[in-house]
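Lay summary

Proteins are chains of building blocks that fold into shapes. Our project writes down both the chain and a compact code for its shape. Here are two examples, one after the other.
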Amino acid sequence: QVQLVESGGGLVQAGGSLRLACAVSDRTETNYPMGWFRQAPGKEREFVAAISWSGDSIYYDDLVKGRFTISRDNAKKTVYLQMNSLKPEDTAVYYCALRRQRTGSIYARAYNYDYWGRGTQVTVSS
């Protein structure tokens, strides 16, 4: 019943910024815990950031803390990832993910999520 669509990826030079969006298609008015992950070619998928269904709880991987900001607009059923001070090592396909259960914890493992978008490419040139 849930579908996720990422957008906002592209090519940017080092030090630049991008804002990714993940639109949630759902017949209900329910919001869910969400996460952002990324995967570079030949590498495993890694956690980037997560946000609770209400937006009250947020968690970042140390590699992006201070540079990336996750947020959500529940009225628009959209989760954002603002990426500043981008580095070449940020280059990857970025995926948003949705967890169906509203737990009190923030989850940073891929297996904690139930639905995934198809990803959006972010390329940072040096």
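And here is the second example, written the same way.
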Amino acid sequence: QVQLVESGGGLVQAGGSLRLSCAASGRTFGSYTTGWFRQAPGKEREFVGRINRGGGLTIYADSVKGRFTISRDNAKNTVYLQMNSLKPDDTAVYYCAATALLGGSRVGDFGSWGQGTQVTVSS
């Protein structure tokens, strides 16, 4: 059982950057693999990336690889998504999610979800 709250979304021009935060409460956040997902209007929620509980292993979707970076600070119970070189097709609601599994990239792999934060990238 862990509760997650995302923050940091907003409006940005193409090529700009944003950093999203995912703050956790409840069970020890360091016990969870944390994923980032996004959902654009009319589309299914898609995997963006994940970070293991120790912070030493990250996996990214091909669409964001090289532009996005996930990190975590377990002492602060927070995971971050640094987004650089943003593109208009990055526009979506971004969600963080947690799982006790060692890893996963499917929505069904993650049992705890934040409320989402809107990221809008203009052309």
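What can we say about the second shape? The first strand starts at residue 2 and ends at 7.
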